Amino acid sequence: MNARVNYASTQTDVGTAEAFEAALQKGRTTGGTLGHLIGGREVNSGEVFTRVNPAHPGEVVTRAHAADETLVADAVAAAKEAQKDWRRTSTVKRAAALRAAQRDFEDRLVEIAGILSAETGKSRLEALGEAQEVVDLVDTYTTQFEESGDFRTRMNSADPNEENTDLLRPYGVFAVIGPFNFPAALNIGMATAALLMGNTVVMKPSDKAPRSGAIVTEILARHTPAGVVNLIHGGAATGKALTAAPVDGIAFTGSAEIGWNMVRALNDGPFGRPVLAEMGGKNVTVVSSNADIDAAAEGVARSAYGLSGQKCSACSRVVVQAEVHDEFVAKLAQRVQALTVSAPEDAGAFMGPVIDEAAVARFEEAVASARAAGATIVAGGDRPDREGYFVNPTVVAALPAGHELTRKELFLPFVTITKVDSFDAAIDEANAVDYGLAAGVFSTDETEVEDFLDRIEAGVLYVNRRTGATTGAWPGIQTFCGWKSSGSSGKGGLGPWYLQGFAREQSRTLPVGK
Predict the structure, then answer these.
(1) How far is CA 35 from CA 43, 49, 64, 219, 350, in A?
(2) Which H or E element spans position 15?
(3) Catalytic member of 130, 133, 278, 409
(4) Tell me: the pLDDT tens digits for 53-99?
(5) How do residues 103-113 score in pLDDT, each as one tens digit?
(6) Which domains are delineated in the chain?
(7) Those residues with Cβ within 8 angstroms of residue 70's Cβ, 6 or more apart along the chain or in another chain
(8) For this structure, is 278 an active site residue?
(9) Is 315 a residue of the active site?
(10) Active-site residue, selected from the candidate residues 126, 133, 298, 312
């Protein structure tokens, strides 16, 4: 690929565009039925399920076998056996294995993007951005690992005949359970961190994007010994079986309900096991009376409707001061009405389809709920007249205070606007949700910005960011750290404190010279 693409990009070069179009066409064919990878062996058993192209639901793009409890148990057993040697593998060799995978990901970046787009409906920029994030996640974590000094620290000693060392040791086997919206990047990000720290993994991609998860998992497995990376496919039943299996920890990205059920399940026993979970958000943008309204409208539009609002960090609500409310609403509506909603093969598409029929039904229910509450549908609220799971980007104003549409995560291109009388009230309203992933503010008043940074209850913050009011986190540049219901550990991926979550501390006192 000639030009790097990230989530703030607005274009790519001609050569990359042509390569993507070819990869997308190839990605729209099934190419057989996906099997599982257990202990280095391909296993083709289990009920077959299908995945259709959300832009063209008549096209089946993936078929895969679903793993039952027996196959899940086999995968966990294979990972446990392989972990005995993997944890003893030198840190240099572990890092080298991930570097080799990184090069492979880079060589196949456009191929990965084509599969992502075919399976999830992502636009070319979103798909190319995710494929690049795969590369950058491996690079970021491996660089941190290489610079860590083996996470080993020489401690002080009270006895001249003793040496004391503190170090981090792997837990064992991690289940890696990924989402449909970033099925390549997030699966690989979680797995890379686990592997570098000496754990082995059992990967379960979303059943809504199994092929996207499979291609990157198989690349990763190619550069590690048999059983270090295992792959199983399936839906909710497979996920429950993996959660109930004797794994030593879980890395998860998905809904808060499922994530917190995992936390409870892995702490219901004689000892707790770690669950490193990122669980979505109800992300807010605060627009002050001192804001640059054009920048705010652009930032919200880019953040809310990229990937059809199906990002954990997508802006889904705006709290705006009364003095600029009408101006902001008018400018946002103007931008939203200009967005191109189309299939990913359309080079001009900004927003593609939502993931499936259930998402369409959720959109229609949300619009009906807004109308029933007497709200104003400022833009959208309907569906384009075309095949596929398309909905129009929607803006809703004048909902009653505290309405569930301003509180509940929808995972849709659906934004609510709440008018408040003061900046202080805006912060209170911004914090009045259970989630705390991302938040943004638009204000030219430094005192207001400082107040926002001090009081806002979220982990990922952006100030006056017109390229994405609440979105755009990138490995090594921003972290992705959810507060409240949005995260289980208080720390997040992409940043400097993630690797350590995949290991536990051990203190060693040995005689001098041993």
Answers:
(1) 6, 11, 6, 15, 34
(2) helix 14-27
(3) 278
(4) 999 999 999 999 999 999 999 999 999 999 999 999 999 999 999 99
(5) 999 999 999 99
(6) 14-279+489-511 (3.40.605.10), 283-473 (3.40.309.10)
(7) none
(8) yes
(9) no
(10) 312
